[in-house]
Structure formats: structure tokens, C-alpha cells
């Protein structure tokens, strides 16, 4: 067997981040989502927790231990209010590959657990701080929550239609976007470290993550010197485009016409000869007369089920999909392997958690593990990471460092 064959076999057998140690100081959603992605990819993620609210850290644990963001991790309890607790944490940081924290700016510095304090003894350390507004500048002390970040980033005045109140994206948009960006940053830093041997201190501002998703609109505003229009369900590159009512209560189908050929097919299917008039033949004309077109399409869709509308339009080569409620998605045949049943402390039946929406060879068999009870791996992690014996761990416990 050649070296190439051996490496290929190893890659097929192991998750891609096996052997990477992550010390996880995160809470709420953004940070835990980032480290959950790393854990899903095979990293050994050690979640540092505390049995009570720790002064200066503001940690408060959800007893349900949400499997969306806490699965596949280990849990260790450390009391950073004690000198032995801080010293033990620093020792763990000395053998970690990655540290992730999403506390307010300056919090970790107070405990001498910031990048500048830890990097000298671990030059390969990759340290990610993901506060709301970054650790430098006049906004570093601002308190951030998902909706605040959506408002300040400008997202809330881009969603919705003209005349609507500012509208947020539900489901903790900023938390998940921030977590994704942090995970990408860590993967990039790990690759760089292979070449340079050096780690990195990464200051990630979650507000900037949200702004980055608005890139084309921000650029357009800068060039045109005016705010972009709030388009609602419409588009400047497809018309007609919208969400149209179908028969039944709260039943809808989304339609997006991208080409003139699709438009002619839709007009013929709807059976409205008037829609074939020259004023509707091109995209600019359809955008101009969008309201009139919408009325005619809605009259056709409202007499049919959303499934029928979708089937007929798709058969004619027109992009259209029915709008589904969340409960229908979970049990759908096309949900694939997105949803994974997981048990957790306090649950009487498995909860459904979203898995990774991509698969890599044998890594598909890497089964997600339910969130552990708090502190379940304290002793095992101290033994594995630091080589501590039972008596040394007992001394730490007696000193109140492991609570």
C-alpha cells in the first residue's frame, strides 16, 4: 500500500477534524453553534461550564441542553472565580488547538484567558472571540442580541416590502450566521497552521457577519447614493415573482419567472391571452405592470391546490414550489438526513436536531451524540488532556475549582 493509499484510507475512516482539540467557552446560540459544527466534523470539543452563574462571565445554562447546539461535545465544570480553576483552565488552553468564546469584550482578559495571555505558551493556538461588535473601537462595550444586530446591520430595513415596519428574520439569524462565519474562520486558520506552524487570534464581530450577507445591496447603495428598495417577495431580475394564494386556508405557492420563454409558458398555462400582450413581453415591462400580472396569476392559483399549481408549473418548465409549514418539513420524504433524533437530559422522547446538510464518504456514519450532563467529562478530560491523576483532581475538587 502506498502512502497515498494510506492517507486516503485514513480520510475515509475518520471525521475530518479528528484529533483537533477545542476548548469551548461559548453560550447562548452563536458560539455553541460554531463549536457544534466543529464537533460534528469530529473535533474533540470540551465545553467549559459552571454550576452557577459566574461573576463576570454571565453564564446561565439551559437545563434542557439544546441538541441543536450542544450535541457531540464533552462537558467540564471549572470555577473561574478560584485561582486553581483559572490555573487549570490555562493549562487546558496550553494543549488546545482552538479556543472559542463569545463573551462581552474584555471578559476573558479579566481572567487572563485572552489570546494575548495564552499565546506565548501555545504559539499554535487558534483563538476566536466572537462578540457582537468586536473587541476594538467605540462599539466594543455595546450589548448585543440577535434583533439588535439585525437592526444595526441594516438587515431589518431590507427585508419586507416598502411601507412595512422594520422586519427581522426569525430563528436567530445573526447567531447562526455568526456561528457559520466563525467555523469557516477556524477551518481556514487550521489550514494556515499546517503551513506556518502558527496559530492566530481572530476577532469576529457578529454585526459584521450580518453586514457581509448584504454585500451587493450595500455596494449598490454606495454607488447609487440611495437606499435599496424594499422588494418584499419581488426581484429586480425575475418577474413575475411572488407568493400566490392557493385553494384552502393559508395555502401558498412561490413562483419565479426568470426568462421570457418561462413567461410565455406561464401566460399560456394561466389561459390569459391578455398576458401575451407586447407590454408584458420583456422583463422591464413585467416589472412595471407587476401588480396587474399578480392579480391574474392569483385568480388562477387560488382555484387550485398548491400541489397542483406546483406540478403544472414545473411541468411547463417554470420554477415554482409550494410553501410548506415547518411541521410538514420534518416528516417529508425529501428531508433526507437533515434531521437526527437525539435524546437529552430531561426529555422523555427523542428531540429532532438538524444535522450537517452535506456528507463525506465514511463520515456519514459518524453518529451524533446527545448533549452530555453538565460536568460529565470533568475527570476524564483532566486525565486525557493534562495527564492528571485522581489525587490531583480530588485536590482541585476540594478547592472548589471544579464547580
Going by CATH, the architecture of the largest domain would be 3-Layer(aba) Sandwich
Highest-level CATH class of the largest domain: Alpha Beta
Low-pLDDT stretches are 1-12, 53-64
Mean pLDDT: 85
How many structural units, i.e. domains?
A: 2
Number of contiguous helices:
17
The count of strands amounts to 11
Shape: elongated
What is the CA-CA span between the terminal residues? Answer: 50 Å
Spell out the CATH superfamily of the largest domain.
Crotonobetainyl-coa:carnitine coa-transferase, domain 1
Strand percent estimate = 5-15%
What does this structure look like?
The chain has 403 residues and is α/β, with parallel strands linked by helices. The model is unreliable at 1-12 and 53-64 (pLDDT under 50). Helix 8 crosses helix 9 (206-212). It is built from 17 helices and 11 strands. The chain has helices at 3-13, 30-40, 67-70, 83-94, 107-110, 115-118, 146-153, 173-196, 206-212, 215-224, 260-270, 283-288, 290-301, 306-315, 326-330, 378-386, 390-398, and strands at residues 21-25, 44-49, 74-77, 98-101, 126-129, 200-203, 241-245, 252-256, 320-322, 339-342, 351-354. The two termini are 50 Å apart. The strands form 3 sheets. The chain has a 6-stranded parallel sheet, sandwiched between helices. A 3-stranded antiparallel sheet has the order 7-8-9, covered by helices on one side. The protein folds into 2 domains: 3-213 and 349-398, Crotonobetainyl-coa:carnitine coa-transferase, domain 1 (Rossmann fold), CATH 3.40.50; 241-245 and 252-322, 2-Layer Sandwich (formyl-coa transferase, domain 3), CATH 3.30.1540.
